[in-house]
Write a structure and sequence with these properties.
The complex is a heterodimer. The longest helix of chain A is centred in the last third of the chain and has 18 residues. Chain A contains 15 helices and 13 strands. In chain A, helix 2 runs parallel beside helix 15, helix 4 packs across helix 5 and helix 8 crosses helix 13. Chain A is of the alpha/beta class. Chain A has a six-stranded parallel beta sheet with strand order 2-1-3-4-5-6, with helices on one face. Chain A has a six-stranded parallel beta sheet with strand order 9-8-7-10-11-12, with helices on both faces. By secondary structure, chain B is of the alpha+beta class. Chain B contains ten helices and two strands, in the order βαααααβααααα. In chain B, helix 3 runs antiparallel to helix 4 and helix 7 packs across helix 10. Classes of the chains: A alpha/beta, B alpha+beta. At the A-B interface, helix 2, strand 6, helix 14, helix 15 and strand 13 of A face strand 1, helix 2 and strand 2 of B. Strand 6 of chain A pairs antiparallel with strand 1 of chain B.
Chain lengths: 403, 227
């Protein structure tokens, strides 16, 4: 696991000094993170890296995970889909299962820290134990268009928190408590993002049979309709009329996800017989994803709906010019024509690709701006800094705070 | 090296970090945007006219305020976007004045081009008002001489430069930055203070601004050592 000093060559000594100064203001405070899983998923991934760094700067931090049976997690999966605005039947019995598990966890878990930081809806009921300490609710999902029934249920608990945190302005709802905007982050030292020797990049491109004889356009995403892989192929074919290039669609799909497999079939059918289109069904392999991104000329993320879009963050961090849809958290990362190109249609995506392939210097400039933007805003150290500020905000008031 | 003048009062280095707070206010049309600009907290006007500087450290050729960017890119009113981008933020010494200037530009545009009121952003592209909650803290470092000042300046973050150079004007309601004020008043070095004052923070990155100040101070120390 990386130490704070390892980040200095990336973000600078001053950024690390800031963390130590802020942490000093929290001396004596105990912080407790609570979520629903210790492994798997973006929240656990971030906490696995964040908690050791909080401890390293001297903030007394622990991380607890709630317990729940199969039924409970089936219900929370339904909640998740419903909060994303997908049609989902959530019954009265489902709410009761959620309440029952919530009550049990509340009985069993010690929540006596000075600040209890609850992640996502699963542990939300713990706030019923609030007694003089500070409570934060971190919503990692897009609740801009939620099922009213599930949201109203959560609203029994949310107002009891001191503050809520969202990843993008468009994900938030009007609430009677303070709401902060904190973006997720990538770890520049992880296998998925660290610098790689050219040799490694070449080996991975060779392994997957991708010649680099012409520009390579890549979209890294699971095979999901919301990522619009078929639209990517259409945009690629339009752009290729003007600039010779290859397309790589790389990602995974769960073997038990029937929709994922059918999307993959559609994509394969669409690409059939085209030697310039490479469809890679991959197992989770962060280093290879890193290499594919670094070996590409342009990265696409033509999603129809997106969370924060950390694949965009990863591409920008590698200095790649990106063409992406202006959905979810992507507009926070890409300012159109400044740190990438935003698109809203297949034609728009094709036009953006042509612009980048035809103007390598322009593309390089966008990539460089994108990398700087990520360095300033979306790296793990900035995420940590914002959490420290958030904790300090719980003990202060006003918009201008001297600490 | 000859001894450099020692100030009676040191320059104390501070920094400022912002945590964005969502206000729940959002606009999909230009009249809605105008209405909310009039009623939004000052910290929101500050956020949308200044956060760009701290978020982007490259040279910025895009509009320096979020209103201009949104009006151009989401609403498609390039003319109003251009007018908003052209507001010379540097000339104002209070958020109140900046807000009034923005309101005046939008009201003037709606009078000139009545059809502009019917333009609207796409779904999901609404303008969300965010305010900056600012945390100001001492870096625990101070300088009595120009040399000490230079040594520390080289090590501080761009957030520190932002605080002392850009935010100082809004904080103190005067037309100068903290660096120039200290060099002028405590070291009596009008020439160096003047050179730093003339730097335009809105047409270069904060890194670039820092390098420019470092360069001015280095040259000055070089001159003092030769004399």
């Amino acid at each position: 696991m990386s130490k704070l000093k390892d980040y200095i060559p990336v973000v600078g000594q001053a950024a690390v000094d800031d963390l130590n100064i802020l942490a000093e203001r929290l001396r004596g405070k105990k912080i407790q993170h609570v979520n629903s899983t210790a492994v798997g998923g973006g929240v656990a991934e971030i906490l696995n890296r964040m908690v050791p760094l909080l401890k390293e700067v001297g903030v007394d931090t622990r991380w607890d995970v709630i317990k729940g049976g199969e039924q409970f997690f089936e219900v929370t999966k339904k909640f998740h889909n419903a909060l994303h605005g997908r049609p989902e039947e959530v019954t009265a019995a489902d709410f009761e299962i959620f309440r029952e598990t919530g009550r049990k966890n509340a009985q069993e878990m010690d929540t006596g820290a000075d600040i209890v930081f609850v992640h996502d809806p699963q542990p939300i009921m713990l706030v019923e134990k609030k007694s003089g300490n500070k409570w934060l609710w971190r919503c990692h999902i897009d609740v801009s268009n939620p099922s009213r029934r599930v949201w109203d249920f959560l609203m029994d608990f949310i107002p009891r928190y001191d503050s809520a945190v969202f990843s993008a302005p468009s994900f938030s709802m009007r609430l009677p408590i303070r709401q902060f905007l904190i973006s997720p982050s990538i770890d520049p030292l992880s296998d998925k993002n660290r610098e790689l020797p050219d040799e490694t990049v070449k080996q991975v491109m060779d392994k997957y049979g991708i010649p680099r004889d012409k520009p390579v356009i890549t979209q890294i995403s699971r095979f999901d309709r919301l990522k619009d892989p078929v639209g990517v192929i259409e945009a690629f074919r339009l752009a290729r009329k003007h600039a010779d290039c290859r397309l790589v669609l790389a990602g995974g799909t769960a073997s038990d996800d029937p929709e994922g497999m059918s999307v993959l079939s559609e994509v394969r059918e669409k690409a059939q017989g085209d030697p310039d289109i490479h469809i890679l069904l991959m197992k989770q392999n962060d280093l290879e994803i890193n290499a594919l991104q670094r070996g590409s000329t342009v990265i696409m993320q033509k999603s129809l709906k997106e969370g924060f879009g950390l694949t965009v963050t990863e591409a920008l961090w590698k200095g790649k010019p990106v063409v992406a849809s202006g959905v979810g958290g992507i507009p926070l990362q890409i300012k159109h024509r400044y740190s990438g190109l935003l698109c809203h249609s297949i034609d728009g995506a094709a036009f953006a690709l042509k612009q980048l392939l035809g103007n390598p210097a322009y593309a390089a400039g966008l990539g460089e701006n994108g990398r700087r933007h990520v360095r300033n805003n979306f790296l793990l150290t900035t995420h940590l800094r914002n959490y420290l500020l958030l904790f300090v905000s719980l003990y202060t008031s006003g918009d201008m705070i001297r600490i | 090296m000859p001894e450099l003048k020692r100030a009676a009062e040191p320059f104390v280095f501070f920094s400022r970090l912002n945590l964005p707070e969502l206000t729940g206010l959002k606009a999909a049309t230009i009249p809605q945007l105008l209405g909310l600009i009039k009623e939004a907290p000052g910290a929101a006007i500050y956020h949308h006219t200044h956060s760009f500087l701290q978020q982007h450290d490259a040279f910025v050729s895009e509009p320096l305020n979020d209103f201009a960017y949104w009006v151009s890119s989401a609403v498609g009113d390039a003319r109003l976007g251009e007018k908003l981008a052209a507001i010379d933020t540097v000339q104002f010494s209070s958020i109140h004045e900046i807000r009034a200037a923005i309101v005046s530009v939008i009201e003037g545009h709606l009078k000139e081009s009545p059809l502009a009121q019917f333009r609207f952003s796409g779904e999901g592209e609404e303008f969300h008002f965010i305010k900056s909650v600012s945390f100001i803290y001492s870096l625990g470092r101070q300088a009595y001489t120009l040399k000490e000042f230079l040594d520390i300046l080289k090590q501080v973050s761009v957030d520190c430069i932002y605080f002392h150079f850009i935010e100082a004007k809004l904080r103190l309601d005067h037309n100068d930055n903290d660096f120039s004020s200290w060099i002028r008043l405590s070291l009596g070095d009008e020439a160096t203070a003047g050179l730093i004052s003339r730097l335009d923070p809105y047409t270069q990155s904060l890194d670039g601004l820092k390098n420019s100040i470092v360069s001015i101070v280095e040259k000055r120390i070089g001159c003092l050592c030769r004399s």
